[in-house]
Amino acid sequence: MKSTFPLFPDSASTLSGHVDALFIVWSLVSLFFTVLIAGLIVVLMSRYRRRHPEEVGADERAALWLEILWSAVPLAIMLAMFAWGTKVFFELYRPPADAVEYTAIGKQWMWKVQHPEGQSEINALHIPVGQPVKIKLASEDVIHSFYIPAFRVKQDAVPGRYTSLWFNPTKPGVYHLFCAEYCGTEHSRMIGSVIVMEPRDYETWMAGGTPGKSMVASGADLFTSLACATCHRPSPGVTQRGPSLEGVFGSQVKLADGRAVTADDNYVRESILNPLAKVVAGYDPVMPTFQGQVSEEQLTQLIAYVRSLGPTGAAPAGGTGGTPAAGTPATGTPAASGVTNPSSAEKDATSPLNTAGQTQGAAQKPPQK
Ligand code: CUA
Question: Of all atoms in ligand 1, which is nearest to the CA of residue 190?
Fold first, then answer.
């Protein structure tokens, strides 16, 4: 029915059916009550109309049970819809652990997409079918909104912070990508395509493009070229100006003002652009800002690198993953020496990527059988 009479966009993600079901049921419930109430108004108006000029209305009171019934039934319906809507909402906004993270940066008037392996695209996103994908969103200028109708996902890209969305495409094809937030003159032309491919075709596509450096490797390069390593390199026996970043990502960080924050994307971003906003306990507020020196792309690469040093990334490399010593100056852990040497930092850096690659490999198998 959908193909001959397209009331709906294509339904091409694991959750698009859930969103449609909620939408359709809500619409039918609303339609039912709208028709019921409007119909009753017309019928009762006609039936109890004033028939001669002297007629005066009698004072009527509805029975108590009726009052309770017509309050309780709508309440129950609303609560049921609320619970259902909440369930779908959480499904839509909680990416699974094995989702592969891509970055999309909105800019007047284009989407710049970067793959974890380093490929970048403009107004296009190539992904393999059946693999959960998380899109980390940022904006270089104004608010944009990343919208793929066929997957029923939409999320604003807001300047100054990261947002994200996720989906798992269920069938190969080319789907619309829109900007769904008015963002200036050429907003209506800020459109693109999401190309969902069979895993084998995706491999071919990946192999055909200019490979470039992985996000993590690019971040490691920046970490060296911006001289971040000068202060954030763990150096045993020396008083450090900045905390080591080994094992920090994802952990709780104690701040100088006594607060504790989780070291997530937005925290690392803020620490690079506005270092004095949240100073780690035990360190002086001496870090200069990198505002204006790093682009949105470079920020996401730096964060990818810092994440690769985090508890999950550092565990296989040095075995210190269990003790994310956030604020404490490094005591010279074996893994820490990895940062001092760019080449070995890069080697470390590839480990989370391999994990991502394996996940993709695993996802390829089912369709090949
Ligand atoms: Cu970007 Cu509208």
Answer: 1
